[in-house]
Write a structure and sequence with these properties.
Blueprint lengths: L3 E6 L3 E8 L4 E8 L5 H12 L2 H6 L2 E5 L2 H8 L5 E6 L5 H4 L24 E4 L2 E2 L5 E3 L3 H13 L4 E5 L8 H12 L5 E4 H4 L5 H31 L5 E5 L5 E3 H6 L7 H17 L3 E7 L4 E7 L2 E2 L1 E2 L2 E3 L2 E3 L3 E2 L2 E3 L5 E5 L5 E7 L28
Parallel strand pairs: 1-4, 4-11, 5-6, 5-9, 9-10
Antiparallel strand pairs: 1-2, 2-3, 7-8, 11-12, 13-14, 14-15, 14-20, 16-19, 17-18, 21-22
Helix pairs in contact: 1-8, 3-8
């Protein structure tokens, strides 16, 4: 069994655990999260709690993070441009024509990640059987790129109708964009999803483009920091659907890491359930911001094959974790009707709950003792 280091970044704390193969001991550590640069908290956790000799011989760094998830929830990702087949510019807003709350007269659907002015059409059409109905109009691709450049677009999602059956036009668009000088993030739907259902595939590809740059830069900075500490092993990040992938793979498919953080607890519980032969287990993962729970049956977590974030579908395997905004740092308050409310706002890491004495003024659900060095 190899020596390995695990780090999970939450909204309030960054938690570390490492197994030392030479001694058989497991050690835990906790440091405050650095909201503006979460990789710094992870590197600090390793520096503080893992001896240099262990860092240098460790074979795996296992990571769980909510960087991609937070980018979506906060709408703080890239400026995305969408290239799609002529006539399908509004798929993101038409969706499936249904309502999430049928009887709510004031319900409004989630604003699309790409505004209409940045959803541009190209001349082309592929039939459902993969045959070409209309060849790609290459000039329209270059025209769209110039419009994107003028709007400050730094990531492009390419979603052509029926491209999961025949990706040739998307592949050609990639070549045209690079030849024309575009150096930003590029997400092609046949690589991201490769499944039918145009709205869901469009949503997934746009999400991938939205978090691509932020996730890639974050993972690159984290790996550089680990190498500077002397780590020479493999860097892995948990997938939304369970298991792990390398940092390099995550940079190419960042949408698969959206639920990277919450999945870690479920995976650990699954291993315990198998070891102890417990047929039914309910997990409870209480962080600073949320309370996450999942069901493990017969040693297997429940897997969905499509997730949803903030009303937007994501076509990827997804461990069925349910969350509410009721973590240890969730802010407690009294509403205008005199009722107590908890969350979804959290005191976070900076300044933290009032009980920490670090400048926070609002009471939270629990008042734990601050970690050493906070």
């Amino acid at each position: 069994m190899a020596t390995r280091i695990g780090v999970d970044i939450g909204g309030t704390f960054t938690d570390l655990v490492y197994f030392d193969e030479s001694t058989g001991n497991t050690t835990e550590g906790k440091v405050p999260t650095v909201p503006e640069a979460p990789e710094l908290g992870a590197i600090d956790a390793v520096r503080r709690h893992v001896p240099k000799s262990v860092i240098e011989r460790a074979e795996f760094f296992l990571h769980g993070t909510t960087v991609g998830l937070n980018a979506l929830l906060e709408r703080s990702g890239a400026t995305v441009g969408l290239l799609t087949t002529a006539g399908f510019r509004d798929v993101l807003e038409i969706r499936r024509g249904d309502r999430a709350e049928m009887y709510n007269l004031f319900w409004r659907q989630t604003e699309p990640l790409v505004p209409r002015r940045l959803r541009l059409e190209v001349a082309e059409r592929i039939r459902a059987d993969g045959s070409i109905h209309e060849p790609l109009g290459e000039a329209s691709v270059v025209v769209a790129l110039r419009a994107f450049e003028g709007a400050g677009v730094d990531s492009i999602a390419v979603v052509l109708i029926n491209s999961y059956r025949n990706p040739s036009h998307e592949q050609r668009i990639e070549i045209l964009l690079r030849e024309a000088g575009f150096e930003g993030g590029l997400s092609l739907s046949h690589r991201v999803s490769g499944e039918y259902r145009e709205y869901e595939r469009t949503s997934t590809t746009v999400i991938d483009a939205f978090v691509r740059t932020r996730t890639a830069k974050y993972l690159q900075r984290l790996e550089v920091g680990l190498r500077e500490l002397g780590f020479r092993g493999a860097c892995l990040i948990t997938r939304s659907g369970g298991g792990s992938m390398t940092f390099a793979e995550a940079e190419e498919r960042p949408f698969e890491t959206i639920m990277s953080g919450p999945v870690g607890g479920v995976q650990g519980t699954t291993d315990i359930a198998r070891t102890l032969a417990i047929p039914v287990v309910i997990t409870a993962d209480v962080g600073g911001t949320s309370f996450d729970t999942a069901l493990v049956l017969n040693g297997q977590p429940q897997i969905l094959f499509q997730g949803q974030i903030a009303g937007m579908p994501v076509q990827t395997p997804w461990v069925d974790v349910r969350s509410i905004g009721s973590g240890g740092g969730s802010i407690a308050s009294v509403d205008s009707g005199g009722l107590m409310r908890v969350g979804p706002r959290s005191a976070g890491a900076m300044p933290g709950p009032a009980a920490y004495g670090k400048g926070g003024t609002e009471a939270t659900l629990t008042m734990p003792r601050p970690c050493s060095g906070c």
